[in-house]
Amino acid sequence: MSWSLFIKKRIDSKEWSARLALLRQLFAKHALRSRPASEAKTCACHSESADSTQDKLREQSQLVQVKKPETLLCAQNDHSCSPQPSKKYLSLLATTILLLFIVGSHYAQDRFPRPEFESQYQRPLTTTPSPQAHFFEIFDIFVLAGALGLASYFALKKRSRRGIFWLTVFSAAYFGFYRNGCVCAVGSLQNVSAALFYPGFLLPIGVIMFFVLPLIFALFFGRTFCAGVCPLGSMQDLVMLKTVKIPRWLSEVLSLTPYLYLGFAVLFAATGSAFIICRYDPFISIYRMTGDFSTMIYSLGFVGLSVFIGRPYCRFLCPYGVLLGWMSSLSKKHVTITPDTCVQCRLCEDACPFDYIDKPASGKIPEPRAQNRKRLAMYVFMLPLMILVGGYALSRLDFVFARLHPKVSLAEQIRQEERGAVPRTSLETQTFRTMGVPIETLLEQATEIEKRFHTGAWILGAFFGLVFGLRLIRLSLPQFRIDYEIDRTGCYSCARCFESCPNEQVRLQNVKNARFERSGKEYLLHVAESAN
Amino acid sequence: MWPNLQIDNRALYGIARGAAIVAAIFSLVVCVLMVTNYLQLRAFDPAKNAPLDTLIAQLRQNPDNDALREQVRVLDLVSRKALFTNQWQLKTGAYLLLGGIIVLLVALKTMDSLHEKLPMPEGNLDDSESWLMSTKARRWTAGVGIALVGSSFVFAFLSYNEIGDGVGADAAGSAKDALVAGVNSWPHFRGPGGNGIARDATPPTSWDIDSGEGIAWKTAVPKPGFSSPVVCQKRVFLTGGDRDGLFIYAYDAQNGEMLWQFQVNAPDDEDFAAFRPYGDTGYAAPTMSTDGRYIFAIFGNGQLICLDLDGNEIWRKGFGIPDNHYGHSSSLLTYENLLIVQYDQASEGRLLGLDVHTGNVIWRVNREVISWSSPICVDTGERSELIVTNSLSVDSFDPKSGVRHWSIECLGGEQGPSPAFADGLLVVANESMQASGIRVGAQGAEVAWEYLDELPDAASPLVTGQYVIIPTAYGMLVCLDAQTGEMLWDHKFDDGFVASPVLLGNLIYALDMAGVMHIFEADSAYNSLGDFAIGEKSSCTPAYADGMLFIRSEKSLICIGEVQ
Predict the structure, then answer these.
(1) How do B420-422 and B404-409 pair as beta strands?
(2) I need a labelling partner for B1 at 20 to 30 A (CA). Which of A352, A480, B172, B174 fits?
(3) To the nearest whole angstrom, how far is the Cα of A277 from the nearest Cα of chain B?
């Protein structure tokens, strides 16, 4: 094939035509951009030399397009002006390089030759997926803030269960199914933990805001994030039908699990081992409509459990709920069962499916006070011991926890292979052996990681000891409460209990009457106006 | 039937109930279909198509066979279509299920809201009940806390730190030393996993026992035994025994110096005095095993012992004198933290998984049928499987739990040869039955081919990947195509084989009973590199480590190669 024929064929092809069209556009833009300053209408201090209307229009459109990058300070007057002539050469150079890339890419070859198909198979065109829009990261923050604001408004101001419900539906649909449950506030605490211990760990603004915003709102308004914004809570709330009441003592014991989960999540994230909250998220596979069989069974099991037990994940697992609970207990405002004063009608006693309504208590206990004081003193005295025992006990398991770290796991596999304890080599060990890194180096790194785990396990165990000790102390304190009150630490501000309060019914009736009265007045006014 | 509803709400309730029933049935049907689909996918994973793999392997051997190529294409296309259809079905099913569940939930919630009961508080407010609950919660909290602390200690005690025995610089140092010493160990009978394969080996390929050329050292073994050497941390371990007792010997792999010997049983020990050895197996036929930390040995009288590498006793167990008409000969095997013991007898035979640290039984499988072969542990690509033969069948177990994966009855008579495995092919053979090539995959195993001609008596076959080597007791050695089981070549040697051949690098080392090592390439034709005598008769399988070959002869332990 001669060269001219080759060129002709190329030019005839659709692909080449498209490229030429693109080149023409680029040239046209360049021609506009690189016009002499004397010809361009750029600012009032330069004379207008472009005569034709077409040129004016073209120029105007170009100015709009390139205004920002080409705006410079005029040397004579303190305002924007067109670029200096030297810039145009740079611009020309850039355009030429760009053109070379475009033309060059046409002659680029596949890294591996494409197979020749004999079955008339049409090879699909290579496409480049568009990158994840940065827009969503920012947009999600606004959606989260808006949802939190709405949840707080519905719970505290409007006292509207219906509003919370529809917000829950929205959150499940948007944060869950549409955004695939990621990023979520619950998982974000791992990113924050990792960033605290690894200065190089990238913490995007979206993750920071997802971690911080719900906590800030909880500090001001209680756990309105849990009410209808959290996608995990939303899923459980929406499937909840007939809840079974869990005995209070069992609920108290199970509610210690989130502290354990929180501790382990921070430990593994801080040591760069794993994000266990994400790994064992029971709802992510449902939101993403994917997952292997065992994962789906696990997820569906949790959903099934949520039908009969109110929010089992939130109550007995959620590690972020621990932080929210702390904030909520200090919150400036919080939902109340009654909008007025409690009349102790007891109608709200069973209104909370999560058992976060505390009954009035006189502070009396059916045992001698001295005995209880003695017990309380013992717990307080033993608190440091519990912290120490907890720390020591968990520190003994440092190497077991460290196995979750990929490097330690690899080192263990290598060791097992080296001493012939396993008949197989894994892909990881095979890859490691091809890297040329001495095994001793790997072992030293693994030992260093185990050291970090040793310290982490000590702190974690001490934390667990503290949690257990404080819980024992709290359970030994006699309760004194005049009215039915919401447990501010646990309450999700879901607004379910409102309607059971007769005062709330009165409030709603008053609102309805006021609305009716207002609309009646408006009607009379309208009739009077019409008559006039 | 109808709850106490207003007339207007009854119709809505009825609609909601009907919708709930339909949605529930629909969701259930979709769910069942999805599970069926998943099970089908598991049973036949199009991405792992054994017939296709076989055809591709055949095509590699016959690249000009157009019909075969077309067959591969058709099968490949069918597999891909099946995979994508399956994925589409699962995805569509998931959406349908989600829709069904949403309708069901809406209907149920509607029903629920239509007959909501008004709250009716019962009893009086009572503080004491709340306090009792707190007391119970307190006790449980304390109990759970203590249980967690206790379980932490127990778990820590039972767990072993593979990297080091603690944290700190010393641990790093000891871990390093152990590792350096542990490179290229030969931990069991027929090496790692018990498959007789060391692909990265660089073994010696010639020597002269008379002139001593190529011989690193030769040392006398005090007591006889059929057990083969195992090598770990530059130490060679052997067992031996006679009327004077049962012994374990440790030799320095560098110079053959005996480092220590440990007497397991003295002549007047109860378990030993009553024991009468059989000529075929003697006192010490089973080969030892090591996991790099401990060494384990079992003897003809059923005495199992664990020592550390310096010869200190860790624990021992007595299984009692076996009811076995040839004597006990199955070798030991370690897998992770388990010691696998195949203790076959005429009755009450058992396969055991013991904790290497304590000797406690972790799992047990009863064995109904006797054999004299040894277990092997293989990697099927999906999991590790413990393969064990008996005189009827070959069985696969989970080495961690002893749960049986599969069993195939393809053996008969008295089973002496151990199974062999490489690249997904398991070969079991028996002189009085046949040799069977079994393809082992994620979904189980199936017999790929059978071979009936030249069969082994005591020596085990060897699978190299492409070839299967079968040594016989009468000196015939055959090479089969691993894919088809067709015989590629055979070679008659002067003496028969009891020791099992091993693959070191790409060379096969087969030691005959007269003590001549036949070295030849693993190839489709017999390409010999030579026959080299060791100067004494031998029935023991050679061991390889650090470029050296360790061979036990009748009275000696010989190290061939250059000391590293």
Answers:
(1) unpaired
(2) A352
(3) 21
The total of other beta-carbon atoms located within 10 Å of residue B88's CB is: 10
Claim to verify: residue B196 and residue B318 sit in the same structural domain: yes
- Please report where in the chains the tokens 């899923």 appear, as a residue: A235
Q: Do A249 and B133 count as a contact with CB atoms less than 8 A apart?
A: yes
Residue A411, chain B, CB below 8 Å: the answer is yes
Taking an 8 Å cut-off on Cβ atoms, the answer to whether B121 and A347 are in contact is yes
Centre a 10 Å sphere on the Cβ of residue A488 and count the other Cβ atoms it contains. 21
User: How many angstroms separate the CA of residue A68 from the nearest CA in chain B?
Assistant: 47
Residues within 8 A of B (CB atoms), A 126-145 only? none
Same domain assignment for residues B384 and B437: yes
Does B383 share its domain with B293?
yes
Assess if residue B125 is contained within a domain: no
Domain holding B310: CATH number? 2.130.10.10
Dump the DSSP string for A150-212: HHHIIIIII--HHHHHHHHHHHIIIIIIITTT-S-HHHHHHHHHHHHH-TTS---HHHHHHHH
Site from A177, A235, A236, A249 to mutate, B interface, most B CB atoms within 10 angstroms: A249
Strands (E), A349-392: 357-358, 361-362
- The DSSP bridge partners found for residue B435 are B429, B451
Residue B122 lies in a domain: no
Q: How close is the nearest chain A Cα to the Cα of B150, in Å?
A: 8
Residue B131 in domain: no
Residues paired with residue B241 on neighbouring β-strands, in sequence order? B246
Residue-number span of the structural domain to which B544 is assigned: 183-560
Helix (H) or strand (E) holding A300: helix A293-308
Q: How many CA atoms lie within 13 A of A260 on its CB side?
A: 14
Pairwise CB contact (< 8 Å): B140 & A396: no
CB pairs under 8 A between A and B: 198
Pairing, β B361-367 against β B349-355: antiparallel
Say whether both B17 and B74 belong to one domain.
yes
Residue B248 counted as domain residue: yes
* Contact predicate B360/B402, CB 8 Å: no
**How many structural domains is chain B composed of?**
3
A349 and B119 within 8 Å at the Cβ level: the answer is: yes
- Would you call B336 an interface residue with chain A, using a CB distance cutoff of 8 Å? yes
Asked if B152 lies within 8 A of A479 by C-beta distance, the reply is no
Among chain A residues, the shortest Cα distance to B133 is held by A249
CA of A249, closest CA in chain B: separation in Å?
A: 4
Per-residue pLDDT of chain B (564 residues), as tens digits, is: 445 555 567 888 889 999 999 999 999 999 999 888 888 777 666 667 777 888 888 888 888 888 889 988 888 888 888 888 888 888 899 899 999 999 999 999 888 888 767 777 776 666 777 888 889 999 999 999 999 999 999 988 888 787 764 333 333 333 333 333 334 689 899 988 788 888 878 889 999 988 989 999 999 999 999 999 999 888 999 999 998 999 999 999 989 999 999 999 888 888 788 888 887 888 999 999 998 889 999 999 999 999 999 999 999 998 888 888 888 899 999 988 899 999 988 888 899 999 988 898 999 998 888 889 999 988 877 788 899 998 889 999 999 889 988 999 888 888 889 999 988 889 999 887 889 999 887 777 889 999 988 899 889 999 988 899 999 999 999 999 998 899 999 999 999 999 999 999 889 999 999 999 999 999 889 999 999 999 899 989 999 988 899 999 988 999 998 876
B40 and B163 co-located in one domain? no
| Residues B146, B71 share a domain | no
The predicted complex's ipTM stands at 0.72
Cα A393–Cα A396–Cα A398 angle in degrees, nearest 5: 120
CA distance A235 to A232: 5
Residues B249, B109 within the same domain: no
The terminus-to-terminus CA distance of chain A in angstroms comes to 93
